Amino acid sequence: MKSAISNFAPWRKAGIEALIALGCGVVALLIALYVLKINPSQLGERWGSGGNDQVLHYDIFSSALNTFPFLPNHNLGFPNAQNLFFAPLFDPWSALFVLIFSPVLPSGIWALNVYSLVGFIGTGFTAYFFFRALRVRRAIAIFFAIVFATVPYHFVQLLYGHPFLANYWAVPLIGILVLMVAGDTTNPFAGWVSRSRSVAQRRWRVWLPIVVITLLVALTQSYYFIFAAIVVGGTWAVKAVLELVRSRSRREFVRTMLWPTVTTGMLVVFIGAQLAVLSLNWGDRYAKYFGARLPLESELYGGKIMNLLLPAPSTGFAKLAQWAQIYQSQSPTSPSSENPSTAIVTGLAFAIVLVVIVVRLLRGSVVTGLRKPTVVTRFIDDDRIGALVVAFVVAFLFFLVAGLGALLAWAVSPEIRTWSRMSIVLSLLALGVLAVLIDMITKKVWLRIVILVVLGLVAVVDQIVGPRKAFDIQITDDSDLKSFVSQIEGAVPENCGIVQLPLKGFPETGNLGQMGDYDEGLFYDFAGDSSLRWSYGSVVGTNANSFWSDDDAPAAFAADVKASGACAILVDTYAFTESPGYWQAFVGSVADPNAPTLVSGDKDRRYELFVLKN
Hints:
By secondary structure, the chain is mainly alpha-helical. The chain is built from 25 helices and seven strands. The protein has helices at 11-36, 51-66, 92-101, 108-133, 138-149, 152-159, 163-166, 171-182, 190-194, 199-218, 222-246, 250-278, 297-300, 305-309, 318-330, 344-361, 375-381, 383-399, 404-411, 423-441, 445-470, 479-491, 522-526, 554-564, 582-588, and strands at residues 72-73, 82-83, 497-501, 533-534, 568-572, 598-599, 607-611. The strands form two sheets. It has a five-stranded mixed beta sheet with strand order 4-3-5-7-6, with helices on one face. The protein is elongated, with a radius of gyration of 27 Å.
């Protein structure tokens, strides 16, 4: 059977495949809406399930709606600016998404919620092409694309407040790159290239998928492009060793390794170029905000085999859910390790991969000892399976607690620390192995239907029924805050600079009292007046953040307030629960702390605004 991608021309066939892929994404989206119990009216409401991280992402999406994420936003970090270039929370493709859709998105709340849901469409879309690249039948590709797009990992990351991690549409493209690097027999574009009618056509057909796919992967979320470099680079290294042994001459080795090397090199070049640009300080940054992370943290957040093999605690199979929950709560090993939330179908695929690894290791005594090749021996020896298994082993070595990920943290950088998230790459590769197996053993249509129906029923209970009961996006009632922001807009002039107390850095500077890490950004999120400037938001480690850094005494604070030209002081009293009157001395240096202009209408009277007199 020819790969769907190798049949890229004529274009009508490509269009049909794209529509089917889009259909997979839409089905995944509908499943997500059902599981998360989301209706259209909730797209404009703040979801509280992700805690501080959720608030962070509402803050940066609100900023991105008005200012491209890699440029200064002068409405934040008053009197200077917030520049998310120095806190690379956005990946370029996500930033481009917000830029394109900003004209039709009414707020940053809407932007993040829509982005989170569109991730199901994107993942289903690319996953379908990965499974078609494996040359499996269309029905099998559709089934596994939907399964992969709706694994519990997707919902868990979303509810953790990690929208960029939940948007893992690039992971299936990593799988395609693995197939491209593994050689001509697995490269889904090899047939398309071989049918070229001219040298010029052959050249662009070779280069087009390499450039497009590596660029797509390289500019995605940092975890995933690092995972791509590891898995694709590892696959390339294993192939290079094998070809050194097999090749009869240097010329043969160079010819065989040329395009796998170009593909891997292109990925590394694009990633390196991005990192080089992001490392520039532009005369503003003097320290990276994540510089406090330690290599040791990579061991704390590594993955555990038991968590990988057990189903997600959210599964609809009650007994299995109980086992998973007991292990998660009672295991003393790396309690901070993030549960990979494995789907049961994926767990079955993991088991098959482990069997394949053992059998391939014993191939000399087991497989070659059989007189007549069987479907099992053909499956074990299939080049697609070989490529997927090699990539799986490489990824697995980085996934483990105290695995190669910890070594990378010590030797290179500790920025990537939660190596348990490599589980989503392992899931893709394992599901690829299972898909090829089903495709090879189901020559009869009725058998294929039976297997897919059984697996589908398992997936419905495991990935839909259980998660619907377990997950809740927790709609937040912000009516009091919205009302207060509206009152602020009526009480201050246009272009007003508002100094927010406590003075706090961004991001990852921790909670203060009862105030969440990123709560001060909510005022900007709900402000309808885009001319107002808020002091919160300048990135720590930049000169823009230094303006208020020495204001540890009322006199210094008063001098900086005057120098900034601020027109108001906004106090969040939740930040001062341990020392309730501490803020009054600072406000008292510029205004009467007992005579606020506005007080919020919530039962705790949490916020107080002091409009300054000229």
